[in-house]
Amino acid sequence: MNRVIPLQSGAAACDSQDRAILKERGQREVFCGLTGIIWLHRKIQDAFFLVVGSRTCAHLVQSAAGVMIFAEPRFATAIIDDHDLAGLADANEELDRVVDQLLTRRPDIKMLFLVGSCPSEVIKLDLSRAAERLSKTYTPRVRILNYSGSGIETTFTQGEDACLAALAKEIPRHAQDHPAQREVDLLIVGCLADVVEDQFSRIFNELGIESYAFFPPRRSGDIPCLGPNTRYLLVQPFLTETARVLDDMGAKRIPAPFPLGVEGTEAWFVAAAKAFGIDPNHVEKVIAPKRQRANLALERQRQVLSGRSIFFFPDSQLEIPLARFLHRELGMQLTEIGMPYIHRQHLAEELALLPAEVSLSEGQDVEKQLDRCRNYRPDMVVCGLGLANPLEAEGLTTKWSIELVFTPIQGFDQAADLAELFARPLVRRTKLAA
Amino acid sequence: MKLTLWTYEGPPHIGAMRIATAMEGVHYVLHAPQGDTYADLLFTMIERMNKRPPVTYTTFQARDLGGDTAELFKDAARSAYARFKPDLLMVGASCTAELIQDDPGGLAAALQLSVPVLPLELPAYQKKENWGAAETFYQMVRLLGKDYVLSPGEKRKPRPAGLPPSCNILGPTALGFRHRDDLVEIRKLLRQIGVRVNVVAPLGAKPEDISRLHEADFNVVLYPEVANSAAQWLSKNFGQPSTKTIPIGFNATRAFIEEVCTLAQIHCDIDELTKRSRARWYALSVDSTYLTNKRVFIFGDATHAIAAAKVASQEMGFQVVGLGTYSRELAREVREAASQYGIEALITDDYLEVEQRITELQPELILGSQMERHIAKRLKIPCAVISAPIHVQDFPARYSPQMGFEGANVLFDTWVHPLMMGLEEHLIGMFREDFEFHDGAAPSHLGHGHQRTPANEASVASEPAPVPEVAVANGAPVTESVWEPEAQKELNKIPFFVRGKAKRNTERFAIERGLPTISLETLYDAKAHFGR
Ligand code: SF4
Ligand code: SF4
After folding, report:
1. Which of B16, B91, B151, B291 is the most exposed place for a label (fewest CB within 10 A)?
2. How far A293 CA lies from chain B's nearest CA (Å)?
3. CA quadruple B86, B89, B90, B92: dihedral sign
4. Is any ligand 2 atom within 6 A of the Cβ of residue A151?
C-alpha cells in the first residue's frame, strides 16, 4: 500500500510508516471547515452556501478571510436563536422558512448547500433529512445538499473535503441512466483555479487522455458521470472523505504526489499517464519543454530561498507538499512541518520525498509550538492569520497560509509563482532593512 | 432562526475579548471549538496588533464531547494560568460550549487559583458583541470595586482642598472605532481644562487600576455601548456622576467641555480652547455652499449615528434623510434623535433592510459602517465610514480621532472628501463642453474607484427606477416611458453627477402621469416638480 514511485535517482527512499511524528493535543490555532465557503462559493458559480449556525459562525465566515469584499456574497447564515433552542419554534419549520426566503431572493441559485456547524450538530439538527425534505419541494429548480463544516468535526480545508464529498455522492454511476451526462475515464478531484484547469486540460489532451473531467465542476449542472473503469487523481491532500465516497462508488485512486512545484506536477502527470498506459517516451516529449520552462522560471526565486530555513504551523494541510517543493526544488531547510492531520495513504508519495531528519507534527498545542518555533528562529514561518503579525513583531518573517489556498499554485506554470509567494516576504525584509 | 448575509456585531464573547485585549494583566480562558480561534485575527490582522489577544481557547472537538470536556477546560485554565500569570482570569463559553453546559465559572473556582476569577455568562443566542463588552466591563468593575462600596447613607468624601478635580475615562476598548485616537484627544482636552485623569478603562488598565476607579470625582463616558452599565454602578455605589455628552463634532465638544467643567466645579475659557478648530471655518467658507442640503443617510452604532446626524445637520448643513442603528439597546435614543429631523429611525440588524431603505431614499452621501460602504459601492453613492463594523482600513496609521476639536476636523475632511468639492463641481459645470474635461474624467480626488466610464454610467442610468404607482393612459398602464431624441440630448447636457438622478426622476414623473414618451417639456416639468 505504501508504494514509492522512484521519481528521480537520489529520491530518499524512506518509509513513511517509520517516521516519528509528534502528536499534540492542546489549543489549536486553526479555522473551522466553514471557512471553505469563502473560496467554494466562487468556484461553483451557481451554488449557495447556507450555514445553519450561531452568530459566531456568521462572524467567522465574514471575518475569516477578512474579506468583506463581496457586497452580495453567495453565502449566508441561518442564525439559531433562543426560540429554536427553547423549543418555542420548530427548528425544521424555521429552516424551511429561511430557505424559502433565500430562494425567493436569489432565483438564480441552482444548488444549495445546507452547512452544519458546531451548534447545529450539538443540538442534533438533522440537516441531511432537511435537505431531503427541501429537495422534494424545490427539485428540479434547486438541488439541495448538506455537509458539516463544524469546528468540532473539521479544520479549515476539511470543509472543502466535506462539501466535495457531499457533491460526489451526486455523481451518477451508470451512464446509460443518464444519457445527458458524460462518462469519464479520469476524474480530477479538488478545487483548482480556472486558469490551472485550462492548463491541465491542454496537458491531458497532449498526453492523449481525452476522457476526463474536473470535479467540482464550475457549474453544478455539469457533474460528470463515473464509468466502470473510472480513475481519479487528487489535486489536494485534504480530500479524505471525497476519496472515500469515490472509492465506495468503485472509482480507483491513482496514487501520486500533489501537483505543486515542477517535480510534483510532473510526477502527478506521469502517474496519470502510467495508469492509462501511455508510452513514457511520449510523456517525456510532452512534459520536457514544460519542465524546462518552469525550472528556468524557478531560478530567480531559488537565489532568494536557497539555504533559508522554514517552519510550518498546521493550517491548510498543504504543508507537506509545500515543504517538499521548497526543500527539493528551492533548497530551503526544513525545521518543523506541522499538519492538522496527516493522511498517511494519500501522502505516502510525498512523505517518501521528505528528508528523514525533518520533524513532523500532527495536531497542535500552539503555545508549545510557538516555543519551538522561537527556538529554531527560522528565516520564514508559514502560519494562519491570527499568528502572523505577532510573529512579525517578534522579528520573524511570515507567510499566511490562507493565501496558498486562494492563489493558483498548482502546475508547471505556477511553480515560480508559488516560490515567489515565499520569496516576497524575504525580499521585502531585505528591502526595508536596507 | 434568522437569515443573515452580513452581521453588524459578533457574538458576545467577542465583546469580552475586546475588554481582555484592551487591558494589561488579564487572561481569558474561553471554552470553544477550534474554529472560534478565528477571533484572534480581528485583533492581529484587522486592528494590526503586534501581539495575540490574551485568550486561551479549549478548542474541543467532536470526539471530546462524549468524554470529559470539563476536564479539558480545567487543563486549559490551569496551563494558561501557569504560563501567563495574569492578575485576573476571565472565564467563559462561546456559543457551542454554552450548549454543552460545562459551567466554566464553577470549574475555574474549583481550581482555587490565587488570582481573582471573573466568570462570564454571556448568552450567545440572545445577545451580541457590544452587550458582551458592556457586561464584561461591568462585571469586572463590580468584582474589583466591591470592597470600596459606600455603605448605605454614606456620602462621598469631598475632594481635599488644593487637589485638582479628577475623572476616569470609561469605554475605549480594543477593536474600537478610533478609540485609541479619541482617547489621546480627550486626554489632551481634559488636561487643558485642568482635570486630572485617574484611570482610563478598559484600554490600557490593569486589574489594580479598576479597583482604583472609586477615587475619581466623576466619570467621562466616551462609548455608552460599552461603559454605561459600569458607569451606572459606579454612580450608585460611589456617588460618581458621569458625563452624558459625546464629544463628537464642534458643538458637542464645546458642550462636553461645559459639562466637564460643571462636574469638576471649575471654570475654563471655552472660546480660547475653541480657537484652533478649523472645521467650523471650513464649513463656513464659500466653497462649502455646495454642501448645503446634501441628502445624507446615516447608520451605525447608536452613539456614532446620533452624533453624526447632529454634526451633519448642524455643522455641515446637510439634510438628514435617514438615521438608524443596529444597537437595539439604545433604540430609544436613536428614535428620539430621528424625530428631530422629522424622520423615522431605522432600528434593525438586517443588512438587507438597510440596503432597501437606502435604495428608496437615494441619498447623496452615506455615513455608515463597512456594510453601508458596500451598499454605497453597489449603488454608486459616496460614502464615509463612521462606525463599527470596521475593516483594516479603519485603523489608519495616522492620527485620526473622531472626538474633540481635532476629531471635528477629521469629520469634515472624511465626509466632504467623497463628495464633489464646491470648486470642482463648479468647474465641471462650467467646462462641460471641453473635450478634456468631459464626463468620463473622474474628479481628481475620487480615485479609480469612482472612475466614470460610459459602461458604469449606463449601469447607473439603467437601474430600474422605483415605480410607486402606475397611472393609466389610453386604457393601458404605462410602465415605461421612451425618451424623445431631443429630450435625451438635453438630458446629456445635465452635469453627469446629477444626470442619473434627473433621469430617474423624469422617468418616474412620466410614468406617474401615464406619459408614454418623454419630451423636452416633460424633462423640465419634472425638473420643476422635483426641484428643491
Ligand atoms: S489580509 Fe488584512 S487587508 Fe487583506 S483582507 Fe485580510 S484583513 Fe483585509
Ligand atoms: S467552530 Fe463551530 S461554532 Fe465556531 S464558527 Fe466554526 S462551526 Fe461555528
Report:
1. B151
2. 36
3. positive
4. yes
Q: Give yes or no for residue B223 having a pLDDT over 50.
A: yes
Give the pLDDT confidence of B41-70 residue by residue, as tens digits. 999 999 999 999 999 999 999 888 877 899
Partner-chain contact B37 A386, CB within 8 Å: yes
Query: Could you tell me which residue, A416 or B154, shows the higher pLDDT?
Result: A416
| CB-ligand 1 contact for B395 (6 Å cutoff) | no
What residue type is B131 in one-letter code? W
Contacts of B198 (CB under 8 A, 6+ apart): B166, B167, B168, B212, B213, B215, B216
Q: Quick check: CB of B45 below 6 Å from ligand 1? A: yes
B405 vs B276: CA distance, rounded Å: 8
Contact A220, A111 (CB under 8 A): yes
pTM of the full structure:
0.88
Q: Is B446 exposed, middle or buried (0-12, 13-18, 19+ CB in 10 A)?
A: middle
> Phi and psi dihedrals of B62, rounded to 5?
-55, -40
DSSP states along B415-477: HHTTSPPHHHHHHHHHTTT-TTS-TTSPPTTT-GGG---HHHHHHHHTSPPP-----EETTEE
Interface contact A119, partner B, CB < 8 A: yes
Q: Could you identify the residue written with the cell 481635599?
A: B160
Ligand 2 nearest atom to the CA of residue A53, by list position:
8
Grid cell at residue A222: 455539469
Give the number of the atom of ligand 2 that is nearest the alpha carbon of residue A117: 7
Is B85 in CB contact (< 8 Å) with chain A? no
Return the percent helix, strand and coil in chain B, to nearest 5: 50, 15, 35
Q: Return d(Cα B233, Cα A22) in angstroms, integer.
A: 51
CB contact under 8 A, B83 and A89: no
Alpha-carbon distance of A313 to A363, in angstroms, equals 10
Q: Residue B380 has what pLDDT? A: 87
Q: Do B165 and B215 meet the contact criterion of CB atoms below 8 Å apart?
A: no
Per-residue pLDDT tens for A343-400? Answer: 999 999 999 999 988 999 999 999 999 999 999 999 999 999 999 999 999 999 999 9
Which pLDDT belongs to residue B355? 92
Which residues lie below 8 Å from residue A106, measured CB to CB, with a gap of 6+?
A: A48, A74
The torsion angle over the Cα atoms of residues B257, B262, B264 and B267, rounded to 10 degrees, is 70
b/e burial code for range B103-125 (CB count within 10 A of at least 16 → b): bbbebbeeeebeeebbbbebebb
The yes-or-no verdict on residue B400 having pLDDT over 80 is yes
What distance in Å separates the CA atoms of residue A347 and residue A2, rounded to the nearest whole number? 9
- Taking only residues 147 to 166 of chain A, the set having a beta carbon closer than 8 angstroms to any beta carbon of chain B reads 150-153, 155
Query: How, if at all, do strands A359-364 and A21-25 pair?
Result: parallel
d(CA B200, CA B11): 25
A119–B99 C-beta distance less than 8 A: yes
pLDDT at position B424:
63
Determine whether B287 is an active site residue.
yes
Q: Is it the case that residue B518 has pLDDT exceeding 50?
A: yes
pLDDT tens column, B332-352:
999 999 999 999 999 999 988
Angle at B407 between CA B401 and CA B410, to 5 degrees: 90
Task: Choose from A152, A313, A381, A399 for mutation: most chain B CBs within 10 A.
Answer: A152
Write down the pLDDT at residue A78: 96
